[in-house]
Every structure is written in structure tokens, then in C-alpha cells.
Write a structure and sequence with these properties.
Layout: E1 3-7, E2 10-12, E3 18-25, E4 33-39, E5 46-51, E6 57-59, E7 67-72, E8 77-82, E9 91-99, E10 105-108, E11 112-116
Length: about 120
């Protein structure tokens, strides 16, 4: 079955760094666009970063210059390198895999908690 498993979350001080990983299985990873979303308490889930199957990236404005998304198709893994973390980055981070053609598929992981606190 399809699985997306996030790891790498934890507690970090402001200004610190974390690298999130999402290990995928059960589908053709290289055919999917990949994204990281996050959801903070009381807020809607938002797109943080995305990467196409060709490697084109996009970022939410608040994380530009601080976060980097990367994919390793040989390892079926997508990463989110997070630097210069801020209190506002505290959220549950979710990995997403999506393709639209020829058929629509949308897969989600269970999430990993990132807490930025002094």
C-alpha cells in the first residue's frame, strides 16, 4: 500500500535547523510532484514548499531563503531543510505526493511535529 512516513521533527531553538525526511513506498515516486505542508494549532494547513518531478521548486513567502526542498528519486525520499527557524514555524509538517494526469492521486503522511521554542 501507499505510505509516506515523515521523520526528523523535534524541538529546536529559534535560529536553529532541522531536516525533515519523508520516505515513500507503494507508488512510482518519480512520477509525482512532492510537497511539504504544515498546520499550526488553530490555523489551516498551508503549503510550505513544493517540487515538481522535473525539480522545479516553489516556496511560501515566509520560508523563502530559509527552507529548501529536495527530492532523491533513487531513495524515494523528499527532504525539507529548515534553517533559521522561527517561532512561527511551529507546526505539524506533512509530506504530500500528488499527480493529476492521467489520473488524479493525492497521498499524505501522518505528519511530524516541529516545535521552535526558547
Amino acid at each position: 500500500q501507499v505510505q509516506l512516513v515523515e521523520s526528523g521533527g523535534g524541538l529546536v531553538q529559534p535560529g536553529g535547523s532541522l531536516r525533515l525526511s519523508c520516505a515513500a513506498s507503494g507508488f512510482t515516486f518519480s512520477s509525482y510532484a512532492l510537497s511539504w505542508y504544515r498546520q499550526a494549532p488553530g490555523k489551516e494547513r498551508e503549503l510550505v514548499a513544493g517540487i515538481t518531478r522535473a525539480g522545479t521548486t516553489n516556496y511560501e513567502d515566509s520560508v523563502k531563503g530559509r527552507f529548501t526542498i529536495a527530492r532523491d528519486d533513487a531513495k524515494n525520499t523528499v527532504y525539507l531543510q529548515m534553517n533559521s527557524l522561527e517561532l512561527a514555524d511551529t507546526a505539524v509538517y506533512y509530506c504530500n505526493a500528488r499527480r493529476r494526469l492521467p489520473n488524479y492521486y493525492d497521498y499524505w503522511g501522518q505528519g511530524t511535529q516541529v516545535t521552535v521554542s526558547s
